[in-house]
């Protein structure tokens, strides 16, 4: 009984953990994968973490997505891409830290601004659930309350424009609130784990 409650609560905690990964629709909310969005401005307002996904949403009749090298990104060279995406709803997992480069392969579109450089930082380990074999003793703080020192801060990078987001790119949606919302979820999940242990001891 108590064990079952613990397992259920652990599953809830894990579900919260998975929900912390974010899907970023490229260009949203003001635009998408189009000819009018400034993608360096768009990306500068987001801290991309490993586990997040990029979602390129566009009409496949008008655009596509080529993942390319930095050299080909800089020169808008569409030949020999690392990977080509053309579904119109391409979900690209940011599975490891580092820079990745995406351009539109339709002639003139890259030079017109359809190019996105994404710098992914390693997600901190602060949110990982405690090992199942060693529950924390009573009274210990939630495991995710404070990230370990030396971990990458989760504050978004400073936008290039002095006034913050330019008009039209309003900071709504999940983007700017992602890290703090995720942090709250982690704390909530940790709290649930604590309740689970109370239940376990009560039985
Ligand atoms: C992200 O998108 C994928 C694919 O559409 C979906 O399976 C997943 O649930 C989404 N995750 C979030 C956190 O929205
Ligand atoms: C995007 O905006 C930045 C900052 O205003 C500017 O320096 C850059 O030239 C713009 N990029 C494009 C492709 O227009
Ligand atoms: Cu295009």
Could you characterize what this model shows?
- By secondary structure, the protein is of the alpha/beta class.
- 27% of the residues lie in helices and 17% in strands.
- It is built from 4 helices and 8 strands.
- It has helices at 2-19, 39-44, 70-75, 178-202, and strands spanning 23-25, 48-49, 53-57, 65-68, 83-85, 89-93, 98-103, 115-121.
- Strands 2-8-7-4-5 form a 5-stranded mixed β-sheet.
- Helix 1 (2-19) runs antiparallel to helix 4.
- The longest helix is centred in the C-terminal third of the chain and has 25 residues, at 178-202.
- The N and C termini lie close together (8 Å).
- Mean pLDDT is 70; it is low at 5-19 and 127-203.
- One 2-acetamido-2-deoxy-beta-D-glucopyranose (NAG) binds next to helix 2.
- Copper (II) ion binds next to loops.
- Keywords: Copper, Glycoprotein, Metal-binding, Signal.
- Residues 120-180 are annotated as: Disordered.
- This is Phytocyanin domain-containing protein.
Distance between the termini: 8 Å
Helicity, as a percent range: 25-40%
Q: pLDDT average, as an integer?
A: 70
Largest sheet: 5 strands, mixed
Q: Cα-atom Rg, whole angstroms?
A: 21 Å
- Content of β-strand: 15-25%
Judged by helices, strands and strand pairing, the structural class is: alpha/beta
Low-confidence stretches: 5-19, 127-203
Give the strand order of the largest sheet, numbering strands 1, 2, ... along the chain: 2-8-7-4-5
SSE pattern: HEHEEEHEEEEH
Please name the defining characteristics of this protein.
5-stranded mixed β-sheet; 17% strand; alpha/beta; binds copper (II) ion; binds 2-acetamido-2-deoxy-beta-D-glucopyranose; globular; 203 residues
């Amino acid at each position: 009984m108590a064990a079952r409650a613990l397992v259920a609560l652990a599953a809830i905690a894990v579900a919260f953990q998975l929900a912390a990964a974010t899907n970023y629709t490229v260009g949203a909310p003001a635009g998408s994968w189009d000819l009018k969005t400034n993608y360096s401005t768009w990306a500068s307002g987001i801290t991309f973490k490993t586990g997040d996904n990029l979602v390129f949403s566009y009409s496949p009749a008008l655009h596509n997505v080529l993942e390319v090298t930095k050299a080909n990104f800089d020169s808008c060279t569409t030949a020999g891409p690392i990977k080509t995406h053309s579904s119109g709803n391409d979900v690209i997992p940011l599975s490891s830290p580092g820079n990745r480069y995406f351009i539109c392969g339709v002639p003139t579109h890259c030079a017109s601004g359809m190019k996105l450089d994404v710098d992914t930082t390693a997600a901190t380990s602060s949110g990982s659930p405690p090992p199942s074999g060693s529950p924390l003793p009573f009274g210990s703080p939630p495991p995710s309350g404070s990230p370990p020192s030396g971990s990458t801060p989760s504050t978004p990078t400073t936008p290039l424009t002095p006034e913050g987001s330019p008009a039209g790119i309003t900071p709504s949606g999940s983007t700017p609130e992602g890290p703090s919302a995720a942090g709250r979820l982690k704390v909530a999940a940790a709290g649930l784990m604590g309740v689970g242990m109370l239940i376990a001891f009560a039985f």
